[in-house]
Amino acid sequence: MPGQPSFPLADEGSGRYPGLELLATAVLLLGESLEVRYANPAAENLFELSKRQLIGHTAKSIIGEAPALCQAIDKALANGASYTEQELELGGSGKPRLHLSCTVSVVETAGARLLLEFRHIDQQLKIAREERLLEQQQANRELIRSLAHEIKNPLGGIRGAAQLLERELDRPQLIEYTQVIIGEADRLQTLVNRLLTPHRLPTYRRANIHEILVRVANLVQAEFPDVVIHSDFDISLPEFDADPEQLTQAVLNVVKNAAQALQTVSGGREIRLQTRVARGVTLAKRRYRLALAVAVEDNGPGIPDAIRDKIFYPLVSGRESGSGLGLTIAQTFIAQHNGTIESQSEPGRTVFTILLPLEFNRSGA
Q: What is the pLDDT of residues 219-259, one digit of tens each?
């Protein structure tokens, strides 16, 4: 068929394809039922599975839910042509998320029907997307800070006027109204202060991430005694330079957010705190050999689809009583540590992952 790839194959009956063994890109060959018939060494490395664990299993069981890739496979089979999906996010279930592109091609060779070739998305494209996201987030934060400053002064005037008015009133019913004004002004003042707080730069000193997580767990457990908090720590992780107060507040906001989400489910409310080493991570345009990965997982209802892509934006909340600032502040503090925070969510499982570089001699403010 014109336009289809031609690969040097040898001894097809044995399932060996020497022409694919040396490729740096990960290749899977699928049979008629979309089961894996062959995987090259690059695919073993990519999916962290041996050939024995890959061959014979369906692509879906290995790749997971990937609607865009399924559509590309359907189009390739229907039209006999190659299709490329430029941005795929695969992984989960305890494995790191993979950002890949995939080319699906129909092949004519014994025992195989489709060839899937996976490539890591170019690092520069990933960095460019992160930069755009950071710029947008920074613009949002500056807008919110400006609004907070504009609100702060008239808010004080409203509260002061209500206090003066209260002194002139002698009817308890009217005084109740002024108390409402004062109470709401105080609530808004607290909100404004929270909006302005993240502007402080971190003050670095040696910190132990597990001490921070244990402190957070105790605080959340005291407020939400019905939530069971599990710990899965890698005790080999070293201390690192950080602002313990800011990191405590950031993690507390994430864990508390999870505990609040769990209040909408009945029974079996659980949160898991996990620490691991992440290797070869790019954060804030710098490549780090080692990074600290903190995962906060809950078995709640999941993040609503309507706000999933905006969960870190200021004043966006999935709860009616939420201020929409907890995750925004957490993201700001983590970004000031040259780290990132991301979320993955589906009904019954939500995971927030914090990545922080394990670097010594970091500069302060």
A: 999 889 999 999 999 998 999 999 998 899 899 999 999 99
Nearest-angstrom CA–CA distance, 195 and 147: 9
In sequence order, what are the residues at sequence separation of 6 or more whose Cβ sits closer than 8 angstroms to the Cβ of residue 71?
85
Q: d(Cα 50, Cα 22) in Å, to the nearest integer?
A: 16
Residue 128 DSSP one-character state: H
Measured distance CA(199)–CA(28) in Å, rounded: 49
Six-digit token string for 166: 């209260």
pTM: 0.56
Interstrand relation of 95-109 and 83-92 (parallel, antiparallel or unpaired): antiparallel
CA distance 290 to 310: 29
Residue 10 has pLDDT above 60, yes or no: no
Q: What is the mean pLDDT of the chain?
A: 80
Confidence of residue 15 (pLDDT cuts 50, 70, 90): low
pLDDT in tens, 22-78: 777 888 999 888 899 888 888 888 888 888 888 888 888 887 777 888 888 888 888
Q: Which two tokens stand for residue 229?
A: 């908090």
Between CA 204 and CA 240 the distance in angstroms is: 9
Q: Looking at residue 355, what is its pLDDT?
A: 93
For the beta carbon of residue 346, count every other beta carbon within 10 angstroms. Answer: 12
3-state secondary structure of 127: helix
H helix count then E strand count, the chain: 10, 12
CB 179 within 8 A of CB 212: no
Give Cβ neighbours of residue 205 (< 8 Å, ≥ 6 apart): 241, 242, 243, 244
How many CB atoms sit inside 10 A of residue 153's CB?
A: 8
Strand partners, 114: 30, 106
CA distance to 80, 107, 338, 343, per residue, from 9 (Å)? 20, 12, 47, 42
Q: What is the maximal distance between C-alpha atoms in the chain?
A: 99
Contact 120, 128 (CB under 8 A): no
Axis-axis angle for helices 244-262, 209-223 (nearest 10) = 40
